Amino acid sequence: MGGFIILFLFCVLILQSSVLEVTHARFQSTKCGDAGPDIHYPYQIKDQHQQYESLPGFELLCKDNLTTIHFPSYGDLEVKSISYDTKNIHLLDPKKCVHHVFLNLNLSLTPFHYFYVLKNYTYLNCSTTLLPPFVEIPCLSAASYHVYTVDPALPVPASCAGVKTVAIPFAYSPYLSDSKLGLRLTWSMREPEDRETTNGARGSHTWRNIGIGFGMFVFVMAMLLLIRTKISVAARNNHLKEDQLLHI
Question: 4-16 burial, b if ≥16 CB within 10 A, otherwise e?
């Protein structure tokens, strides 16, 4: 009977090891270049083999030691850092014009939304330069037109036309550096992570459930064999006692 117990413990250890291996693979970090951010679940580098399925929207690109993420509505943005504890991904615009990103980036079909509190601002395209307190956005302006962000409640000057009203973290200010503040997004899964409905989470839980189920199966079989063995031994002992009584 000791052999069955050893077999049971051996199977449980193997399955537990498999579950730990899958879980470890999900959270094993990789990098794109020495200075790049740590990359692990739910993110992964595109075309790099992983032991978990990629999640839509969380694929990163690695080119020339630079980590980027692609947004169909805008293009590629540089990934400066990722905080997994606060679910905060810090992005930079290669064109160094964060308001160009604000004006065009559509996050509705992605797992991301802005990390900061948002407020509606209207972008104005003006044929003439406006006086303070209006502040021109240099990276969106040219010699023949001038772009500003204003409160939507303000009346539109005669020389301007409203381009778009969008909810963004902040209006343009010459005192806010794009390279320092940049873009900060946070993310959420399509369904709550605590319900473990993502493919990667399902994978680890499937392995764990298989391990538990198989362990219980082996345990039950071992118990049945133990009971059967005890019944057989008891029956044999009864036969021996009967034989002994008959020979007295």
Answer: beeebeebbeebe
CA distances from 107 to 1, 42, 104, 232, 237 (A): 62, 18, 10, 70, 77
Rounded CA gap, 170 and 102, in Å? 10
Give the Cα separation of 223 and 208 in Å (integer): 22
Distances (CA, A) of 158 to 16, 68, 161, 209: 71, 41, 8, 68
pLDDT at 201: 46
Rounded Cα–Cα distance for residues 148 and 90 (Å): 25
Below-70 pLDDT ranges, the chain: 1-27, 49-54, 177-182, 190-220, 239-248
Say what the pLDDT of residue 181 is. Answer: 62
Q: What is the pLDDT of residue 159?
A: 97
- Which structure tokens are listed for 90? 């810090």
Q: Residues with Cβ < 8 Å from 174, sequence gap 6 or more? A: 135
Residue type, 22: V
Q: Do residues 26 and 200 make contact, with C-beta atoms less than 8 angstroms apart?
A: yes
The token pair at 14 is 């193997």
- How does pLDDT run across 49-68, given as a tens digit for each residue? 665 666 889 999 999 999 99
At 176 the pLDDT is: 74
Rounded (10°) CA dihedral 160, 166, 169, 171: 0
Give the Cα separation of 134 and 146 in Å (integer). Answer: 11
Computed on alpha carbons and rounded to an integer, the radius of gyration of the chain in Å comes to 32
